[in-house]
Write a structure and sequence with these properties.
It is a single chain. 19% of the residues lie in helices and 37% in strands. The protein has helices at residues 35-45, 89-100, 128-138, 181-184, 195-202, 260-270, 290-294, and strands at residues 14-21, 49-54, 59-63, 66-70, 74-79, 104-113, 142-148, 154-160, 170-179, 212-217, 223-229, 233-240, 247-252, 272-282, 304-313, 316-324. The strands form two sheets. The chain has an eight-stranded antiparallel sheet, with helices on one face. Strands 10-11-12-13-9-14-16-15 form an eight-stranded antiparallel sheet. Strand 15 and strand 16 (316-324) form a beta hairpin. The radius of gyration is 19 Å and the shape is globular. It starts with 13 loop residues before the first strand and ends with a strand.
């Protein structure tokens, strides 16, 4: 996450979520996988563990390039920069089977925004088509989607073409860029000493009150934060503050019927020039109908909608919206 001068850093993350199951009655738990196994896996991805916090239902790791979350049967890995996330897929399946007995991938979600400079990525990550080809070799029933404008800003998704997760599940993301530089200065060592000071000074501390927070401020700039919320929920925020490649991501699986208040809180903290929003919720989720409110939104406190798309596949609803400041 750190950077200096005019060095370009790709803040846009690759996000992988894998749900596991067992074909036997064996009691399996991903949280029993030894830390050294996760460390070995992350070496393949080109990142490392900085810190870890645990709750009753989840372990949350701050990484040198974003975050990792582990629950009993779900693994989430989010990495930025030039990381090689998809190279971890096959080893992940083997580690999970060898260490805790899960032998089935129940569902997979791989997603990301389009990169600012895809030519700087390693191998398979230089295009979504190459990523899809790689995943198709592992999953014969994969399905790939693109939302937004493929010649501008867009969002990609790869998942399995069958119903997997039936218990309540939802993910809310705000991906922001063209950031306010006054806000971004907070996430530098010139203004703040460490992660906790940046968390409080920026207003991040108040976005979801009561979360157990693990935060880190990089040298000379850059910020990562994981928060655990009771019930097996998380929030994660990552900031690339450099003016020429500024980017912030906010992600949470906290269930809400409407995300309007949360959206306004996040936008108030970061004040982006543009943002992309996705809400992903299955039929059992409290957030399953949140798309209906968003369909009516032509504006949102200083922003106008450029694109809005709604998709239904498997047992999930997916809403994609892209907002920007109005041209004056």
């Amino acid at each position: 996450m750190a950077g200096a001068g005019d060095h370009f850093f790709e803040g846009t993350e690759k996000l992988l979520e894998v749900w596991f199951a067992s074909s036997s009655d064996e009691k399996c738990d991903l949280r029993t996988v030894p830390r050294k196994e996760w460390e070995g896996l992350l070496k393949l991805v080109r990142c490392e563990i900085i810190s870890c916090i645990s709750g009753e239902d989840m372990d949350a790791y701050v990484l040198s390039e974003s975050s990792m979350f582990v629950t009993k049967d779900r693994f989430i890995l989010k990495t930025c920069g030039r990381t090689t996330l998809l190279l971890a897929m096959n080893p992940l399946i083997k580690i999970v089977k060898d260490n805790c007995g899960f032998d089935k991938v129940m569902d997979i979600f791989y997603s990301r925004k389009n990169f600012s400079r895809p030519e700087l990525q390693h191998g398979v990550h230089r295009s979504f088509e190459d990523e899809v080809t790689h995943l198709d070799t592992l999953f014969p029933n994969g399905a790939a989607y693109s939302l937004g404008r493929i010649n501008r800003d867009c969002w990609y998704l790869y998942t399995l073409d069958e119903e997997g997760v039936t218990r309540p599940d939802q993910t809310f993301e705000l991906l922001m860029w063209d950031m306010c530089q006054e806000k971004m200065k907070i996430f530098t060592k010139e203004v703040c000493v460490d992660g906790p000071e940046a968390t409080k000074k920026s207003g991040i501390f108040d976005i979801i009150p009561g979360a157990k927070i693990d935060d880190f401020l990089f040298e000379p700039c850059g910020y990562s934060m994981n928060g655990l919320v009771k019930g097996g929920y998380y929030i994660t925020i990552h900031v690339t503050p450099e003016p020429h490649c500024s980017y912030v991501s906010f992600e949470s699986n906290v269930p809400q019927e409407t995300y309007q208040d949360l959206i306004e809180k996040v936008l108030s903290v970061f004040n982006p020039g543009k943002f992309l929003m996705t809400i992903f919720a299955n039929k059992a989720s409290l957030a399953r109908d949140s798309h209906r409110e968003l369909e009516k939104k032509e504006q949102m406190k200083g922003y106008v909608v450029q694109d809005h798309q709604y998709c239904r596949f498997k047992n999930y609803n997916l809403t994609y919206s892209f907002f920007s400041r109005p041209v004056i």
